[in-house]
Amino acid sequence: MSAVGHRGGAVIALSLALALMLHMVPLPGWAAAARPEWLLLVVVYWCLAVPERVGVGVAWFAGLLLDVVQGSLLGQHALAMALVAYLAIKLHQRIRVFPLPQQAATVLLLAGLYALADLWVRGMTGHAPSVWRALLPALTTAALWPVAFVTLRFLRRYYRVA
Amino acid sequence: MVLDHQTRYGQHLRASLVVLVYPLQYAVTVPGELGRWVADEFTTRSRLERDNETLRTQNRLLRAQLQKYAELEAENIRLRELLQSARKMGERVLVAELLSVDLDPYRRMVKINKGGRHGVYLGQPLVDAHGIMGQVVRVHPLDSVAMLITDPDHSLPVQVNRNGLRAIAVGTGTGLEIPYQPNNADIRPGDLLVTSGLGGVFPAGYPAAVVESVETNPALQFATITARPAARLDRGREVLLVWPAGAAPAAARAEAPP
Q: Closest partner residue to B1 among A17, A32, A73, by Cβ?
């Protein structure tokens, strides 16, 4: 992380670690199904902000760690995360100039896609929850996008991550 | 992904990755532990005395019952020897604690604070004071993940305690159901289901569930039977890991405290 022009790798790693921790915090039963995809938010943000550093590979590895944390099939979240990161990077120049609400709408689509990819793997290997329940986290994720965006942008500017 | 689903090769990769996330997990459990510690430290003297008294009474009662049990066991062994059948031996247990971390929201899994280092093995049964809870599905060096019997992927071989009728209890996510029982099967609400020991994973004779409702519909081939797990799956923090007699690998037996 000490290469010229690359700063703040630790900030990226720490934000990812914090997002992973938020996935583990116990929630009451009714809220657990609607838990926002924190890791997705952080990965998408860094994909938009520094696409030359955080890409499909980092997203895939972050997803793999999430699989380990949740005890799900290895690669289940990794696949979905890599898919979303690919799209985010493909579209990053457009999404960057969107106003915040429109960005949130894009994140809703990405998170929905993430949930569907996840659901697809679940459906193939065991029992899938109902589609509407599976899409619930996409809504909360999109609702939290403005907060995550502002926080992470502050962090990026403060530590001059580039 | 296919490898992890179909085989057990994923275990090694998982075990090495889990080392990376273990500190995070530990950090997440700290606030809850702290809260419990504070609550423990500041319980009042009178409450401690009261607790002590109830535990003493309970202990006396259990001891009295145990005396009878010891005699019954001796008698049982004698009778079994007469019949020349294999005798059931005592099982080793180890107390483990649930870690307060959330896992996959669509599965019924829990994480416990004992792992491969403590001799935990894949498929090891997990019980609490009231009955069977589940089995270990992933073993990591310092912790492991157990699937509860209410998980939709879990099936438990049981038999009705009253008449020995064998059945399978399948998890539904919230409770259990007993599929493939004919409409005239002799199962009634309130029946206790105990593990039958068939399948080789769970030791026989532990209470597993209580039948809740039996609905017979002549239009359907089988009765619809639901059951409630006997173990308190959603409360309590302490669970028991059981090494069934003869089923534990040698290494696990050596490491397990008596």
A: A73
